[in-house]
Amino acid sequence: MTNSKSTKRALLTSALALLMCVTMLVGATFAWFTDTASTGVNKIQAGNLKMEVTYKNTADGNFEKVNKETPVFNNNALWEPGHVEYVVLKVRNAGSLALKYKLGINIASETGSTSVDGNAFNLSDYIRFAVLDGDQSSLGRDDLVAAAGNGAALNAGYTAENHLLAGTNNSEKVVTLVVWMPTTVGNEANHKTEVTAPSIDLGISVAATQDTVEKDSFDNTYDKDAVYPIVAMDTLQELINNAAEPVSAKLEGNIVGSLTVPQDKNITLDLNGFTLTGGDSHAILNRGTLCIKDSSGNGKIVASKANTSALRNAAVCVIEGGTFTRADGADNKWHTVENFGTMTFNGGKVIAEDGQSFAIVNGWNYINPGEQKATMTINNIEMKAGPNGFKNCAGGTLTMNGGTLHCTGFWGLSNDSTGIATINGGNITSDSYIAISDGGAKMEINGGTFTGPQGSLYVQNYAQDTVVKGGSYQNETVEFMQGCCPDGYTAKLVDGMVVVSKD
């Protein structure tokens, strides 16, 4: 380090206060009544899920219970390259039910700074940590760091899944948590003396849920769908990366970061009324099988950066609930939901009132996808967008059975290029222009309500095939709509709307 000793010692002036936050999930699958049975030899008792975390006191070697306020690291430590801290933890199953848990570390808060080189930086980029099996306190500094290997950056996250039985020799596990600043770090993490010193507050979360051990009259799989409570993006990402079978996760707080669901992973994510805010990339990029729910309502997935979406799907995605939107900002423009795979809306909202791009895009915009296909089915949705609504693009196949597409500006729905659209029901509205524009390969309308001040349906001169067999249309003429009807269907004026029906 070329800066002064005092400047080096000022680095990381906020001590790593490691707070234990043990979150337990007790599912309804084992919430039986506690009572005695009708015979004298049987007792029916509710199981309980309980986990206890202790740390090894370096003064006497005894394990002491930790809580949210326990500082297990040296609060007065001044960090610089080569500094190492560790703590030995014991996680114990103190309940009567087998459990599985994830040990994760998250950044509770952080203040960045400016390096002596003039570059902005965060300490989380230059501190690493790892979780080692067993009590490794006998190792020296160099050996401990060597055992940790490369570890993981604080901002990358790390979790380790373990299984603990109840009331056996396998009911507890001892691990060593190591946190260090590598000696390879230089002035890129050394702040200027005249600026605010960087600081960081860390927290550990231990999330537990039921494990498939106990049996009922059938088997031990009744709690296979027990969900992990999630309080940090890194915990969620690691849970998904390590999933060897379908996994359900439930948010227990707002999280920030970009989530990727890899290929061959099957994930159900319950927003539970909380918000997932994207980072530098798409808030969610799905390459596997993903179902998004919102059991508590008001849950959101937010795109925070230009040229990123709240949800980009490249595989299979089912949306049951949640609101997909964009953070405020004049430069935060892009499609809010993009589909290049198979997507089904059974609920949920898409709100993109300040964007310049279409709120929802199905298929490839201005790109020839070749043989690639994007398929979207809308059974229920609430979309409110401005100025552009929904665009069904090249390679896109859309089936709309219900829901509402509401656009404040141009098209509520634009079926373009080689897009194929079938509208069986729902409501499509434009506040300023025309509800539907068809310039795609094929569009068939069998039902629904369509409104726009300048008309309900506009057929581009390059549209290949537009067929109307049903629906109600505002600000259209009977003659125009009749021209879109095949034999056996008639357009009539009913209460100011042109209604198409079978003869």
Entry keywords:
mainly beta, 46 strands, 503 residues, 40% strand, eleven-stranded parallel beta sheet
Gross morphology: elongated
Strand order of the largest sheet: 17-20-23-26-29-32-35-38-41-44-46-45
**Percentage of residues in DSSP E strands:** 35-45%
Distance between the termini: 86 Å
Task: Report the strand count.
Answer: 46
What is the average of the pLDDT values?
82
What percentage of residues falls in helices of 4 or more residues?
under 10%
Q: Low-confidence parts, pLDDT < 50 over ≥5 residues? A: 1-47
Query: How many helical elements?
Result: 4
Structural class: mainly beta
Gyration radius (Cα, Å) is 28 Å
What summary fits the major beta sheet?
12 strands, mixed
How would you explain this protein's 3D organization?
This protein is mostly beta strands and 503 residues long. It has a domain at 1-36 and 44-211. β45 and β46 (497-502) form a beta hairpin. The longest helix has 9 residues, at 233-241. The N and C termini lie far apart (86 Å).
Would you summarize the structure shown here?
This protein is mainly beta. It is built from four helices and 46 strands. The strands form seven sheets. Strands 17-20-23-26-29-32-35-38-41-44-46-45 form a twelve-stranded mixed β-sheet. It has an eleven-stranded parallel β-sheet with strand order 15-16-19-22-25-28-31-34-37-40-43, covered by helices on one side. Strands 18-21-24-27-30-33-36-39-42 form a nine-stranded parallel β-sheet.
